[in-house]
Each structure stands twice: as structure tokens, then as C-alpha cells.
Amino acid sequence: MKYDLSQVYSRVFGLGMLAKLRRKVRGVIQRYGSNAVKRRLWNAEFSSGRWSGLENMEGDCLYPTLEKYSRGKAILDLGCGPGATAAEIRGYGSYTGVDISEVAIAKAQARNPLCDFAVSNIESYRPRREYDVILFADSLYYVARIPDVLHRYSAYLRPSGVFIARIKGVRPEWFTCTGFREHGQWARRYAVVSAIQQRCTVLEYQLFWYSDVIAVVAAAPLQR
Ligand SMILES: C[S@@+](CC[C@H](N)C(=O)[O-])C[C@H]1O[C@@H](n2cnc3c(N)ncnc32)[C@H](O)[C@@H]1O
């Protein structure tokens, strides 16, 4: 069979461009879409198995830090996904998980019948109590105004309470130098780190080198 190289190139390149465009559109919907549109998108992705890797996260780099701050205490997990964190960490007092996807929440509730779950948007959810730990495990990239979210939830942290965040795809220098203006593929991840630095005192952070660099950050809000 004879291949026309220019056709093969344009197909591969074209598909690459299309995939990039789809990723961009998806990112915009995830941040700025209406509640209903975001919910549909996440439900479809959880139903299709795209996020099945989140169902078992045994040994995740987040867990030692989370267990240290939550021993015997109350956790609010914002963007909790299908419930691996509640099932896999040890020693917490109580756990509330919130997610925009009812498909994810149904899995989370089935796996953790003694925990509380709510289907809600992080940006509008109103907690009914205060917590010792408020967790954002790879969920802050999806909100439009990250500093506002941190500010609002700081009112629901107990006096010695902390935010804990897991952030994928960071650059180590964001934690040691200032003055970055990241854009392109780094922009959202940098926005999360920068919002935490603006609104909080970073108590500790750890970096883990996998295919991406993953940061686990514990931070106390400047205002409560
Ligand atoms: C990458 S997954 C992380 C799930 C889980 N935290 C974990 O570490 O396995 C992001 C989660 O955030 C949820 N999410 C995204 N935007 C949200 C929003 N605006 N409000 C509530 N949940 C949201 C998604 O449904 C998804 O479950």
C-alpha cells in the first residue's frame, strides 16, 4: 500500500490540533460553564470510565500529610470524586465530601456509607459547620476565582484549621521564588499556587516527582 506522507502528516497534526482545541474548550467549560453544563460534563466523564483511576489511590502522596493534620478531626473534601480519600486514609474523626457530579458522589457514598456526601458546586456550597481540614485534592483548577473560594471557605475553618491541597504539574521554583507570570499550560496550576500564597501562610509543602511534579501543601488562611 502506498502512503502519501503529506496526508499522513496532516491527519496526525490535524488530530493533535483537534485534541488541543477540545482540551481548551473542556477547560473553559469546567471553569466558566453553568452549574448544569459542568455537572453534565463531569457526570459523562465519570460514567465513561475516564476517571476510573481515581477509585483506588492507595499510597497516594497526599495521604501522610492529610492523616497528620486530620487525626481525630473533621475533614471537608471539596471535589472529592468517587470516594477513595475517605476510604483509604486512616484516623480522621469525621468526613464530608462534596462534588459537582452525582455519578461520583453515588460511588463515594456506596464505598463510604458512614461518611456524609453532598452533590454541589464548590463555588456555591455552604457548609453547615466548621472543619479542622478543608481539602482540595486536584480540584481548585476547576473554579473560576480561586482566591475568592479560599477566602469564603476560610470562614468554615476552626481557629487552628488548615487547607490542604494537592496540585499536579507544578514547577518547584514557584515555591521558592516570586514574580512569575506563568501562562499557557502552566497558567491554571500556577494560579492555584499563587492564590494559596496570596491568601494563606504556607505551613509546609512537599514535592513529589512522578511524570509531573506534584505538590502537597498545608496552609493556614490569613483571614478567618
Ligand atoms: C481530578 S478530580 C479529583 C478527585 C478527588 N479529589 C481525588 O483526588 O481523587 C476533580 C474532581 O473535582 C470535581 N469538581 C470539578 N469542578 C467542581 C466544582 N465546581 N464543584 C465541585 N466539584 C467539582 C470533579 O467532579 C472531580 O470529581
Textual characterization of the structure:
The relative contact order is 0.12. The mean pLDDT is 93. It is globular and about 65 Å long. It has two domains: 1-32; 53-221, Rossmann fold. A seven-stranded mixed beta sheet has the order 3-2-1-4-5-7-6, with helices on both faces. It starts with a helix and ends with a strand. Helix content is 39%, strand content 24%. Helix 4 links the parallel strand 1 and strand 2. The chain is built from seven helices and seven strands. By secondary structure, it is an alpha/beta fold. Bound molecules: S-adenosylmethionine. S-adenosylmethionine binds next to helix 2.
Keywords:
7 strands, binds S-adenosylmethionine, Rossmann fold, 7-stranded mixed β-sheet, 24% strand, alpha/beta, 2 domains, 224 residues
Secondary structure elements and their pairing?
Layout: H1 5-32, H2 35-48, H3 63-70, E1 74-78, H4 84-88, E2 94-99, H5 102-111, E3 116-119, E4 131-137, H6 146-154, E5 157-168, H7 187-199, E6 200-209, E7 213-221
Parallel strand pairs: 1-2, 1-4, 2-3, 4-5
Antiparallel strand pairs: 5-7, 6-7
Helix pairs in contact: 1-2, 6-7
Bound molecules: S-adenosylmethionine.
The site of S-adenosylmethionine has 20 residues, from helix 2.
